[in-house]
Specification:
The structure holds two protein chains of two kinds. Chain A is built from seven helices and eleven strands. Chain A is of the alpha+beta class. Chain A folds into two domains: 23-153, GHMP Kinase, N-terminal domain (Ribosomal Protein S5, domain 2), CATH 3.30.230.70; 159-263, no CATH class. Chain A has a five-stranded mixed sheet with strand order 1-2-3-5-4. In chain A, strands 7-8-6-9-10 form a five-stranded antiparallel sheet, sandwiched between helices. Chain B is α+β, with helices and mostly antiparallel strands. Chain B has three domains: 7-181, GHMP Kinase, N-terminal domain (Ribosomal Protein S5, domain 2), CATH 3.30.230; 191-310, no CATH class; 324-459, no CATH class. Chain B is built from 13 helices and 19 strands. In chain B, strands 1, 2, 3, 4, 5 and 6 form a six-stranded mixed sheet that branches. In chain B, α2 packs across α3 (138-152) and α4 packs antiparallel against α6. Classes of the chains: A alpha+beta, B alpha+beta. β10 (237-245) of chain A pairs antiparallel with β14 of chain B, so a sheet runs across the interface. Chain A: InterPro entries: ExoRNase_PH_dom1, ExoRNase_PH_dom2_sf, PNPase/RNase_PH_dom_sf, Ribosomal_Su5_D2-typ_SF, RNase_PH. Chain A: This is Exoribonuclease phosphorolytic domain-containing protein.
């Protein structure tokens, strides 16, 4: 099995284990929508638009007196992945992602303020280089903020996982481990913000079944868990959590703490972008003298 | 489900929950009973979880492998929901996704053993999970059904010579079980956060208690309780400003349909017995701290996973042994394909027809070559009991036989293999099934209408 950690403890694309890819956010990219945002996470590129709160189109939403109904539609471009696929091949994944985003924001948006109305989120996946679920959630969050919809907190998502290290890189990081505080145990390295390559790597990695059934420490070495966590960064509470692959329960909390680090660094950049955008608006209206 | 819970029901269920009761009389941490009904065909199972019923069936075919996975078989899950349940596509897809993640992405099924010829032919298993009735917690039920079906399934044996693939019918070689590494069992937890009304209720309760104060003051215990209550009141008084954010969370295991409508959040954990998480789905709902999430796994999920795991294993043991008589009949039949394997009714009706068709199926598959190496000798005596003796002459297993007229080389090999397997199995699990064994002995003493004396000589190929 190939390992994606180099001997110096760097990942294939040159990042350190706890480093997220370059985050670029832009608010108000489509003026005709109530809110819109563009979110780039490395090569992953997602555009989100928000329409609403507006009168609901479905009867169920119009009757809902308790709060707003949030819907989400996700579309993938045919050229979004390295293997060119027809758009309808993505349909099931997109439907599930849309459902996930809608449910995530249902509890983050203060829906009780918008009774009998609907908030529609539209997400376009332009490029998928791994971790689209988190990128889509982040983009939707920015678009909702741009639309001026009340939310309890930011909802920021990030993925995290473990990759196995070869023995060679294990030795190396053992030496450097004292200097830089890379968290490591049993030859596994927690990484944050997995790109497509790393995701595939842990998907296709194999482990021996005997290790799993014994449930011992050596079983750890080969198995990987991938989590996608959406969190409210200020309260540190998890809104949405998805996990794939196999992970010992005892490692779950560690993995979540890795994810939290990634979320915090993405959150600061998102907050900065929002701040920058609002200062720009203030400046334009003449509240801030130039 | 699109149905709505009435306000009265909502209040009633919530109040009951606060006192630790649920509508169907369970405690908060109890799951409903699981009942397995194994179908007559291999790989078909109906699972009942309370009123929820799911039927799962595994079917297979040989296909070309996927690009880039030329040494792996394919396992596909389909969830079929009848239209009257009015489930949205998302919900159905989510169930499929949870099951898929539990089995395929956690590599519970060994896909590499499903490869027949590298890059050319692999087994394509399709697990159809059809929902019959939804009375809450469909995910767990569907997952258990898929698990039991895959465990129950047998695929035909295959011989590869060069690039020629021969698929053996059941009369030639025994079908093989799937290689399952671990049993991923999903447990869904419902979370209910009592709203600020809860505080009012508490206050009401306190008020009630205050009114009953004089009675309680008589006992020393009552006094202590009061102190505690007073503390509680002061606490809630302090936090009154944040009454909205003061919440008490209930966690329900295995929520029923009415409870599902009431839930503020749901999380599904797929775990194995060995504390390995295979999949987690917590989508939206109540925000939880990461420590609480892990704690939920330890306190609620793990015990139930263990319980269901043990039950499933027992169920399979029972399933193998609960009806030895039925199996014996089958052993003697001309069993041609897997459909007839576990179905005595079909067998009885079509035994003649199958007997005539057995020769054709044999010719299509691997042709058995008769070698002069008799290994096991089976003799059927007047009582209709079959005595099996192997070369060493030590094994002697009794089986009763109702109908046995012909001898056929295929049946003999089949019979011999079954008997060998069963001998080992019986020895392993004999103590647990002594009662059944006694029944069997009783049955043997009954005079059976024996048809004819039969001597079967099995050959080893």
């Amino acid at each position: 099995m190939a390992t994606s950690l180099s001997e110096s403890g760097l990942r294939e694309d040159g990042r350190r284990p706890h480093e997220v890819r370059r985050v670029e956010c832009k608010l108000c990219v489509f003026p005709h929508a109530d809110g819109s945002a563009e979110f780039r996470l490395g090569a992953t590129h997602v555009i989100a638009t928000v329409f609403g709160p507006r009168q609901a189109s479905t009867k169920a939403a119009r009757v809902n007196e308790d709060g707003a109904t949030i819907t989400c539609r996700v579309q993938s471009c045919e050229f979004s992945q390295s293997d060119h696929r027809q758009a309808n091949k993505f349909r099931r994944r997109d439907r599930l992602l849309g459902d996930l985003i809608a449910q995530t924001f249902q509890c983050a948006v203060m829906t009780n303020l918008y009774a009998k109305s609907s908030i529609d989120i539209c997400i376009e996946i332009l490029t998928n280089d791994g971790d689209i679920n988190s990128a889509a959630i982040n983009a939707a969050c920015l678009a909702l903020i741009n639309a001026g919809i009340c939310m309890k907190d930011y909802v920021v998502a990030c993925s995290a996982g473990f990759i196995a290290k070869s023995t060679r890189s294990l030795k190396q990081t053992n030496k450097t481990g004292a200097k830089t505080d890379h968290i490591m145990f049993s030859g596994l390295q927690g990484i944050v913000d997995l790109n497509q390559q790393e995701k595939n790597l842990s998907k296709h990695s194999s482990y021996s079944s005997t290790n799993i059934s014994e449930g011992n420490e050596s079983g750890l070495e080969m198995c990987n868990g991938i989590v996608t966590v959406a969190m409210m960064p200020n309260s540190g509470e998890i809104v949405t959590l998805e996990m794939q692959s196999v992970l010992p329960l005892s490692q779950m909390e560690k993995l979540l703490s890795f994810a939290k680090k990634g979320i915090n660094s993405i959150h600061t950049q998102m907050a900065a972008a929002v701040k920058k955008h609002s200062f720009m608006l203030l400046e334009r209206k003449g509240f801030i003298g130039s | 489900m699109e149905s709505v819970l009435s306000i009265n029901d909502r209040h009633f269920i919530l109040k009951a929950l606060q006192k630790g009761y649920r509508l169907d009389g369970r405690g908060l941490e109890d799951a409903r009973d699981v009942k397995y009904t194994f179908g007559l065909n291999p790989g078909s199972v109906e699972v009942q979880l309370g009123g929820t019923r799911v039927f799962a069936k595994v079917s297979q075919m040989l296909v070309q492998p996927q690009i880039g996975k030329s040494n792996q078989g394919i396992v596909v899950f389909r969830t079929l929901v009848p239209p009257h349940l009015k489930m949205s596509k998302e919900v159905v897809d989510r169930i499929t996704q949870i099951i898929e993640r539990g089995f395929v992405e956690s590599k519970a099924i060994d896909l590499e053993t499903l490869c027949v010829l590298f890059g050319e032919q692999v087994w394509h298993l399709r697990v159809d999970i059809s929902v019959i009735q939804d009375k809450g917690n469909l995910v767990d039920c569907a997952n258990l059904a898929a698990l039991a079906a895959l465990k129950h399934h047998r695929r035909p044996d295959v011989t590869v010579v060069g690039s020629k693939i021969t698929v053996h019918s059941i009369s030639e070689k025994l079908p093989l079980p799937l290689n399952i590494h671990h049993l991923p069992i999903s447990v869904s937890l419902g979370h209910i956060v009592t709203p600020e009304k809860d505080d009012n209720n508490n206050n009401d309760n306190d008020m009630d208690n205050n009114s009953t104060k004089p009675r309680k003051e008589q006992g020393g215990d009552g006094g202590e309780e009061e102190e505690e209550e007073e503390e509680h009141v002061t606490k809630s008084g302090e936090k009154k400003g944040h009454a909205k954010f003061q919440k008490k969370m209930f966690t329900l295991i295995d929520p029923s349909l009415k409870e599902e409508l009431l839930l503020d959040g749901k999380s599904v954990f797929t775990m194995t017995k060995f504390e390995q998480l295979c999949a987690v789905h917590k989508i939206g709902g109540v925000p939880l701290a990461s420590r609480d999430l892990v704690q939920l796994c330890y306190t609620y999920v793990l015990p139930l996973v263990n319980q269901w795991h043990v039950q499933l294993e027992n169920e399979f043991k029972k399933q193998q042994f609960d009806n030895p008589r039925k199996r014996k009949e089958l052993l003697l039949g001309r069993i041609v394909d897997p459909i007839q394997l576990f179905d005595p009714l079909i067998f009885k009706a079509t035994s003649k027809a199958i007997a005539s068709s057995s020769s054709t199926t044999t010719s299509s598959g691997h042709v058995l070559e008769n070698k002069e190496k008799p290994q096991n000798t089976t003799v059927v005596d007047r009582d209709g009991d079959a005595h099996v003796t192997d070369n060493n002459g030590n094994a002697d297993m009794l089986l009763d036989i109702d109908i046995a007229n012909d001898d056929d080389a295929n049946t003999d090999t089949l019979w011999k293999q079954w008997i060998e397997e069963e001998e080992t199995r019986f020895q392993q699990i004999l103590p647990a099934y002594t009662d059944q064994h006694e029944d069997q002995k009783d049955m043997q003493t009954d005079p059976q209408p024996s048809s004819s004396k039969l001597t079967l000589i099995s050959e080893f190929s």
